[in-house]
Please model this.
Amino acid sequence: MAASSKKVFVLDTNVLLHDPKAIFHFQEHDVVIPIVVIEEIDHFKKDQSEIGRNARTVSRHLDRLREGGSLASGIKLDNGGLLKVDVAVHPLDIGIPSLDKHHADNQILACAFALLKARKEKVVLVTKDTNLRIKADAAGLQAEDYTTDMVEMDELFTGHRQLEVDAADLDKLFGGGLPSAQDNPFLPNEFATLVDRANPSHTALARYHGQDNLLKPLRRLEAPPWGIKPRNREQQFVFELLLDDSVQVVTLLGKAGTGKTLLAIAAGLQQVVDEERYHKLLVSRPVMPMGRDLGYLPGDVDEKLRPYMQPIYDNLDFIVTANMEQRRRTTMTAGQLEEGGYLSVEPLTYIRGRSIPNQYLIVDEAQNLTPHEVKTILTRAGDGTKVVLTGDPQQIDNPYVDASTNGLSFLAEHFKHQTIAGHVTLNKGERSPLAELASNLL
Model:
């Protein structure tokens, strides 16, 4: 008898906690949830973090599905697959006597191996736990990561490219705009470094305007925002997006020292304080993990938050100093900006349920957010609000996401076709020669 093309996917707890809708994402294949996974879900259900909310969502999905039949026998899903909760006790007889049969991961392994022996279909264990995938592979069981919302980092949209053109094309660029080539079209708000084929030292920086299907030169900065001058072309691209009202969502990826947060705050201050385009600059970052209770730290709320928010204040102090040197319109300190209502520095913990209209919102360290958390933030944005998310996918502190599954990378990739969104990946560090050496060599 030929092997069935249908598969049986056994889900680990971390898959459901990462994506509560994971059970619906396996097309026509069968999905099996070991009973120990339900027990672990129950353990997390009272947690006030995003993990707890996901656990409660999983429980609601399963409770709704059981109304259509027995979870133990299997319930037909809309996509043609079958969902089953495996309640049997399986012996851990997989040839590795040192494994603890009471450990939840090993009970999940035992369930998967029992299905491998009993079912004619291909059985695959799906888990975000690297060590469990290694154990499964060592024991002869196929194991995979959950990749539904995964972004291929090698293929992640960078927001800019280099293009060789003729001298006549450069003349067209400055004469009204250069049409995008049909065989290699640009994405909305994508940037280009145009290089003259005949004279490589002759270059121009351009941005693609989708509504006109034209590459146009970058706007000239009349004055550096609050004294912060772009030091490389990537930072010029960033300011182009940050200072444009039509671009409502901006994602900035880059290693430490590339200036992501600094540029975002400087552009925000200019548009809030000097130009009065927005009512307030709201700067936020996740208290890791998102939703963590601050009550264990000493002091009032401001004192509890200060250690988490200090990097933001460091950037503010640097910008204020640069602004004073430029003798711009205001010389207010960070404290005076907060007291005057121009600036608010808050943790993301308290953003759920809020509506944020006509504000310039910066979310720092966004690489520690899940795709669902990023969705939560964007759905808080009211009319006239601009949202800027910054982060480094290689420096993640959240154990439930990685470089490919974090909300920042997810948003950059999924919004790249939207005319209201822009993205730049910054590669060159500008903090100091020492910081750049450390980032590259260590």
